[in-house]
Amino acid sequence: MSILISLLIGLVFGCGLIVSGMSNPAKVLAFLDLAGDWDPSLALVMAGAIAVGLPAFSVARRRQNSLRGKPLQMPTARQIDRRLLAGSALFGIGWGLAGICPGPALVLLGSGAVQGAVFVLAMLAGMAVFTAFERLSQAREGRSDRGQ
Amino acid sequence: MITIDWLHFTPASSFAGGLLIGFAVALLILLEGRIAGISGIVGGLLQPRRTGDVGWRLAFVLGLVAAPLAWGMLALLPQGRIDATWTTLVVAGLLVGFGSRLGSGCTSGHGVCGLSRLSPRSLAATVVFMAAGFATVFVARHLLA
């Protein structure tokens, strides 16, 4: 059941990206180009999404379980640390270079754009590099813990 | 001074698309108890032993990939434009993948879900990636070009 629900939700999310213009990299770049002919449309995507998200999360926050009785897995991290800021900066640079973020990348892949497929492969590689990098730093921490 | 491109401004469809995205986010948290952060969902697929829940992640991703296919069966799929060169696409993809994992989120996880949860951490992340995006386009289009 969860599989079917997740599939349908992904489909709705993807249609939202298409309707909104988020899956058009040229439009995303026009939004990020404050000094050029600025297309403010994507601010409205954010506004629309948050208009629905805000009440949904205010309900979710007061519950232990989802409506289907599943544990609500809310993020627990609170710290604004160097990882968060550096990661977000790198992500923002990549987003500004091509006008593509992870959701639209998958929609572009599905629309049959070869560029979408190339971007998704590079994105997966970037994520794999992160996983490897994290494993390495955990192994290093493990060694230094034993040393103490 | 900012010049607005009124010709390409699509307030109604962009807001409507935003509502749909918000609806998907709301359903995922209220039914499945999960945050609809695309980079986190995809990243979890690369660490299956750590997360142990490949099924719903894969299904969600398939839904996203299938969206333009389903759309194309019912209506004309709006044509996007990708101007980036192959090199730019690869570099951008690597940065987006690595950066979103290091920063624990992207436009959906921090920008939509995090702001909807009123999380100061996600607000900080969103301000930083938006600023980096604006700065990158400024450099690429107005300083280097």
- List the domain count of chain B as a whole number: 1
Order of helices and strands of chain A: HHEHHHH
The residue ranges of chain B in which pLDDT falls below 50 over 5 or more consecutive positions are none
Radius of gyration of chain B: 17 Å
N-C termini distance of chain A = 48 Å
**What is the number of beta strands of chain B?**
1
In terms of DSSP E residues, the strand content of chain B is under 5%
Global shape of chain A: globular
Describe the oligomeric state of these chains in a short phrase: heterodimer
Count of discrete domains of chain A: 1
Work out the helicity level of chain B. over 70%
Report the helical percentage of chain A. over 70%
Give the secondary structure arrangement, pairings included.
The complex is a heterodimer of chains A (148) and B (145).
Chain A lengths: L1 H19 L4 H8 L4 E2 L2 H21 L20 H17 L3 H9 L3 H34 L1
Chain B lengths: L2 E2 L6 H22 L5 H9 L1 H4 L2 H21 L11 H17 L4 H10 L3 H25 L1
Helix pairs in contact in B: 2-4, 6-7
Summarize the structure in words.
The complex is a heterodimer of chains A (148) and B (145). Chain A has 148 residues and is mostly helical. Chain A has helices spanning 2-20, 25-32, 41-61, 82-98, 102-110, 114-147; one strand at residues 37-38. With 145 residues, chain B is an all-alpha fold. Chain B has one domain. In chain B, 74% of the residues lie in helices and 1% in strands. Chain B has 7 helices and 1 strand. Chain B has helices spanning 11-32, 38-46, 48-51, 54-74, 86-102, 107-116, 120-144; one strand at 3-4. In chain B, helix 6 (107-116) crosses helix 7 (120-144). The two termini of chain B are 20 Å apart. At the A-B interface, helix 1, helix 2, strand 1, helix 3 and helix 4 of A face strand 1, helix 1, helix 2, helix 4 and helix 5 of B.
